[in-house]
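User: Just a sanity check before I run the rest of the batch. Below are the structure tokens for the first item. I only need the designed sequence back.
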């Protein structure tokens, strides 16, 4: 996973190298078993590279075509923006369903049809991504980073980080800081 830009070309406004690398890694990991979700990640990356970032810096969620039984693009965009805005606090599925203006059960089914993963799994990946960004941009302790990502403690961060990325936060931070 590449987390720094080494070229001398200027980066587009709204472009975040760690987010781009994370989107690319997610696309590669899902390509074999769920090409539609991989395409979704690549389209988000393309939007970032095309300088189409939303005003608040959150890259837009682009869906090539609405999926039958899935969320409408405006619903998915609203849910992702809500998650990004409140990532450091507790986010319940009921609140996400309210943002999408759906019942909780229907929202969970539609979200999974659209993204290929449950709202909870998506939220965990977003928290891990935020932790990656904070580990690269700050010298905060892993405990502080865990709290900033809405996790209970460093052990919780380590457990989720290892589950998502296959390595502990400390090893990941040392590896990427050395580069």
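Assistant: Here's the designed sequence for the first item:
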């Amino acid at each position: 996973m590449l987390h720094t830009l080494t070229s001398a070309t200027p980066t587009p406004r709204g472009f975040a190298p760690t987010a781009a690398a994370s989107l690319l890694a997610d696309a590669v990991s899902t390509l074999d078993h769920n090409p539609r979700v991989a395409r979704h990640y690549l389209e988000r990356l393309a939007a970032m590279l095309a300088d189409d970032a939303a005003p608040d810096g959150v890259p837009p969620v682009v869906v090539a075509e609405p999926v039958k039984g899935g969320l409408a693009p405006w619903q998915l965009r609203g849910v992702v923006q809500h998650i990004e805005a409140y990532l450091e606090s507790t986010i319940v599925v009921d609140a996400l369903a309210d943002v999408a203006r759906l019942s909780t059960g229907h929202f969970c089914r539609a979200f999974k049809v659209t993204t290929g993963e449950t709202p909870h799994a998506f939220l965990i990946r977003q928290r891990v991504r935020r932790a990656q960004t904070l580990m690269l941009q700050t010298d905060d302790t892993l405990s502080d980073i865990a709290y900033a990502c809405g996790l209970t403690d460093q052990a919780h961060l380590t457990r989720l980080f290892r589950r998502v990325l296959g390595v502990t936060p400390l090893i990941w931070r040392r590896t990427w800081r050395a580069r």
